[in-house]
Design brief:
Structural class: alpha+beta
Radius of gyration: 27 Å
Order of helices and strands: HEEHHEEEEHHEEEEH
Strand content: 25-35%
Helix content: 25-40%
Number of strands: 10
Amino acid sequence: MKRKIVIAALAAAALAGGGTATALATTGDDGRGTAPRADVSVPDDGGVRDEADDRENDRDDDREDGARAASAEVTAADALAAALADTPGTAVSAELDDEDDDGDDRRQRAAWEVDVLAGDGTWHDVRVDAVTGKVLGSERDDDEDDTAEVRAALKGTSVDAAAAARAAAGHGTVTSVELDEDGHYGDGKPAWEVETYASGKGEREWRVDARTGKVTADRSHDRHDSRDGEDADDAHDAHGSDDD
C-alpha cells in the first residue's frame, strides 16, 4: 500500500512542478521484497513546444513559398501557353515546383508542372522552366481517369486556366492554378482554384469563376468543418467582394 502512495505523491509533485519524475518503489509493509520500478512521466511543456514547432514549420513553409515565387520569372499564364504550344489540348492545372525531375541535383531549378488534356482524351504532364520558359519535357499520364468530368465542367465556360491566373495575379505571384470541377462545396459550379504569394501576406487562396472570371477569396479550407464557416463564405460570395 505504501508503494502506491509514494508513486502517487511523486506524480502529483511532478505535475505541480511542471517536470518529470521517476518513482522507485521499494519494499512495503507486506515484506514481499523489492517491487519493480515504476516510471511516472509528465510532459513538462504543456503542449507549448508542439505549438512552437507548428509555428516554425509554418514560417519555413512561407519562406519556401517566397523563395519559389521569387525564382519564377515566367508567369503561370506564360507557362500554360508554352505547355499548350508543345502539347495542344486543354490545360487543367499548373503548379510551380522546385524539384528537378531529371535526376541531377546539381541543376535543381524551379519549373512549372502543367497538366494537359489532349483532344484524343490522353493526359500529359508538361514541365516548363520557370526562368527561361523552355519546355523541359512532356510525358503521357495514364493515371488520370476524370476526363469526362473535366470536359463536362468546362463545357460552356469562357475562362481558361491562363485567364484565371491573370485574373488572380493582382493579389500576388501565382504559384498554382487548378480546375475544381465540383464547385464550391460541391454546388456543381466549376471554378478555378488559384494560389498566390505576396511578401508580407504569405500564401493566399482564391476562386475564379470559370464563366465570369470573378475573383473571390477562398475560405473553404479555413473552417471547412464548421457550418458557421460555410454560412460566412456563402454570404461573402453573395456580396461578391474581393479580399485584398
